[in-house]
């Protein structure tokens, strides 16, 4: 019986340990999926495609997330290192000031130095609330500013995140000074506001990254695979740079048993979906260009061309 109890205890610890690992991994996967989706949605929207029609999997979005997340993650890491270094220096100086001020009267230089630290804590808190108030004002002016100011979706969450962070850190400095501030619901709300606005800013950057990738790709369409498309029916394509040829014999008639009657050159493969292909004109970018969607079935035949780079 004792062995059974010991075994059950070990199983419970294993389950608890596994849960502590699986939960963060699930959250990380969900975040990577969202940012990958936001980036891909902006990227293919530039070519007039709703990303949901492509049929990419969760793994596809997760694999796309490192590119838009690299810059924000590096920024957060460097900012975190700088803030941690500053906080450690500040903590040591406050500790030294408190130790020096013990047992001295109010007029002593040590007490004046300690009061300056209190002023700093109050200044951080007041400045944080003022910055947060500016962010709330920007948030309330969304309907007016968002359509007119392109940087609105990035500036607004940054302002609100900075305001929340300053208030939280001001309270932290006050606790280091021994003000005896207790945990209050407002601290939890401020932390939630900070996390939410960091998420918002990162999502905005992911969208901008996807759109920037699309614009850079549109300027260098020659990087995409070149294809020759054969079809059973005439497509009546109007985008410039696409050549149409009717497939006939030398006598001008279709060959016996011929399936495909039209051939199109000058197309590039943008992406392959689950059951369809998305093709774009291979020439220079033009506002009159459009994305061609063809099914992956017997109605089309696709040939991939070698790159013009002899070995």
Structure description:
- The protein has 311 residues and is an alpha+beta fold.
- It folds into two domains: 11-218, no CATH class; 221-304, no CATH class.
- The protein is built from seven helices and six strands; from the N terminus they run H-H-H-H-H-H-H-E-E-E-E-E-E.
- Strands 1, 2, 3, 4, 5 and 6 form a six-stranded antiparallel sheet that branches.
- Helix 1 (2-45) packs across helix 7 (185-218), helix 4 packs antiparallel against helix 6 and helix 6 runs antiparallel to helix 7 (185-218).
- Alpha carbon gyration radius: 30 Å
Mean pLDDT: 85
Shape: elongated
Class from helix and strand fractions: alpha+beta
Q: In this structure, how is the largest beta sheet organized? A: 6 strands, antiparallel
Number of strands: 6
Q: Estimate what percentage of residues fall within beta strands.
A: 5-15%
C-alpha end-to-end distance? 74 Å
């Amino acid at each position: 019986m004792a062995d059974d109890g010991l075994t059950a205890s070990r199983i419970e610890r294993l389950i608890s340990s596994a849960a502590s690992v699986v939960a963060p991994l699930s959250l990380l996967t969900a975040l990577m999926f969202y940012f990958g989706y936001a980036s891909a949605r902006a990227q293919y929207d530039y070519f007039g495609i709703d990303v949901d029609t492509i049929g990419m999997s969760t793994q596809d979005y997760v694999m796309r997330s490192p590119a838009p997340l690299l810059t924000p993650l590096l920024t957060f890491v460097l900012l975190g290192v700088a803030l941690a270094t500053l906080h450690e220096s500040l903590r040591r100086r406050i500790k030294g000031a408190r130790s020096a001020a013990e047992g001295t009267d109010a007029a002593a230089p040590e007490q004046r130095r300690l009061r300056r630290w209190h002023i700093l804590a109050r200044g951080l808190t007041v400045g944080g609330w003022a910055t947060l108030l500016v962010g709330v004002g920007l948030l309330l002016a969304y309907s007016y500013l968002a359509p007119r100011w392109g940087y609105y979706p990035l500036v607004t969450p940054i302002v609100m995140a900075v305001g929340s962070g300053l208030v939280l850190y001001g309270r932290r400095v006050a606790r280091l000074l021994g003000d005896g501030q207790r945990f209050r619901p407002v601290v939890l709300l401020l932390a939630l506001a900070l996390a939410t606005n960091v998420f918002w800013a990162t999502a905005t950057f992911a969208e901008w990254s996807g759109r920037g990738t699309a614009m850079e790709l549109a300027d260098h369409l020659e990087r995409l695979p070149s294809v020759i498309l054969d079809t059973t029916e005439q497509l009546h394509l109007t985008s410039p740079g696409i050549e149409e040829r009717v497939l006939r014999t030398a006598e001008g008639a279709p060959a016996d048993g011929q399936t495909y009657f039209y051939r199109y050159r000058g197309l590039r493969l943008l992406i392959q979906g689950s059951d369809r292909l998305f093709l774009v004109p291979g020439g220079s970018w033009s506002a009159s260009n459009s994305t061609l969607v063809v099914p992956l079935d017997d109605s089309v035949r696709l040939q991939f061309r070698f790159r013009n780079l002899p070995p």
